[in-house]
Amino acid sequence: MKQAILLTCLVVLAACQPQEKPTTETNETGAIQYAERFTLDEYDGYKVLKVNQLYQGSEESMSYLLYEGELPQGIDVSQYVPVQCPVKRIISNSTTHVAFLEILGLKEELVGFAQSQYIYSEEFNKRLEEGKLEEIGSEGKLDIERVLSLRPDVILAFSAGGENRQLEKLQELGQKVVYMPDYLEPTVLGRAEWIKFIGYLVGKEKVAEAYFEEVAMAYDSLLALVSEVERPSVFSGSLYGGSWFMPAGHNYNGLMIQDAGGDYLWSDNSQNGWLNLDFEAVYAKANRAEYWIGAANYESLEKLEEADERYAEFGAFQAGEVYTYTKRLSANGGNDYFESGNANPHLLLADHIKVIHPELLPDYELFYYKQLE
To answer: Which residue has the higher pLDDT, 7 or 144?
Structure first.
């Protein structure tokens, strides 16, 4: 797998650099180190996975009791959603789950997917063409009968809140709906650690733990490369419907720019979501910024200027230092940045370092991002 080769190269490259100030403490393999939205408790004969926020704005939590063979005796099952493991038949509605399953070597286990046109993976697109993976509808409009016909062991659910009634209906019909709000994690390493969550469900926890440990080591080693660099100014985002959507200072995108040795111009903002700004406010602060990273999905500087001629007034535009996350697109429009990006934070960080400090990674080629011309 190309990702594995790149991971190895990054680990070897970064290991050659001084690492006098490690950024994280090394915990015991298997411990939840970065993720804040789920916890794992192990007991004699079973595990409990607790998701402490099901979706954006939710205050609900849900606990999943994972067991093999017979359900353990003497447990008040009403407190949990019992899930017999390892699960063998999975339905999902998020491409980040696809990436985690592919890394874990699990392809046949995914039997249904919502909005499959967004899948980037060649392997899973091939399974769609062969009828081995079935389309089960769109967000908020799942085909309930098709879902039931596929007899899933679990439904891995991304939820923004609007489609919850259908998920509740599936639960009423006896389906095991397992919420995975990995998108709510404030850091990229926290998002990547959700591979462990799936690993516990499918009986691949050791594989998941080992993969994440390598990813975290590569990430920390790359951080060491930029520990003492000068920090060029960087901004992000673009206009949508007349408003500029900008990552807040504690949004994972803003933190990534800081981690890569950039000076994110909105880093002093303490929010972890997205800022809704007008063009004038952005231009006043970022018109002389050196880099513009994350300019939506535009394919060229010309297309960017056609969308709004004011974009061309930014210094980063005039210098040609504008980057988008559209390098890896499938024929039907699936974007690998949104699919495997969560699983590969080290590659996201390497991309950002390559943009901001190209001299530190001279032989590395951008993986998810590309420079607009």
So the answer is: 144
Confidence at residue 92, expressed as pLDDT on a 0 to 100 scale:
95
Helix (H) or strand (E) holding 309: none
| Strand ranges across the sheet with 233-235 | 263-264, 233-235, 291-293, 322-324, 370-371
Is the distance from CB of 196 to CB of 216 less than 8 angstroms?
no
Rounded CA separation 63/82 (Å):
9
Mean pLDDT of the chain: 90
Give the torsion sign (CA, 52, 54, 60, 64).
negative
Q: Quote the CA–CA distance of 253 and 266 in Å, as a whole number.
A: 11
Residue 163 neighbours by CB under 8 Å, 6+ apart: 139, 140, 141, 142
Count CA atoms closer than 13 A to 231's CA, side-chain side.
15
Rounded Cα distance between 226 and 263, Å, is: 12
Q: In this structure, what token pair is assigned to residue 62? A: 């849900």
**pLDDT for 22:** 31
Q: What are the C-alpha distances in Å from 253 to residues 51, 172, 248, 249, 362?
A: 23, 38, 8, 8, 23
% of the chain beyond a pLDDT of 90: 78
Q: What is the pLDDT of residues 84-125, one digit of tens each?
A: 999 999 999 999 999 999 999 999 999 999 999 999 999 999
CA 101 to CA 111: how far, in whole Å?
Answer: 12
Strands 46-51 and 38-43, how do they pair? antiparallel
Whether 169 contacts 199, CB under 8 Å:
no
Say if residue 10's pLDDT is above 90.
no
Rg of the Cα atoms in the chain? 21
Pairing of strands 90-92, 370-371: unpaired
On whether the CB atoms of residues 159 and 369 are closer than 8 A, the answer is: no
pTM of the predicted model, to two decimals? 0.89
Instruction: Give 6's pLDDT tier (boundaries 50, 70, 90).
Output: low
Of 63, 28, 49, nearest to 209 by C-alpha is 28
Q: How many CA atoms lie within 13 A of 195 on its CB side?
A: 33
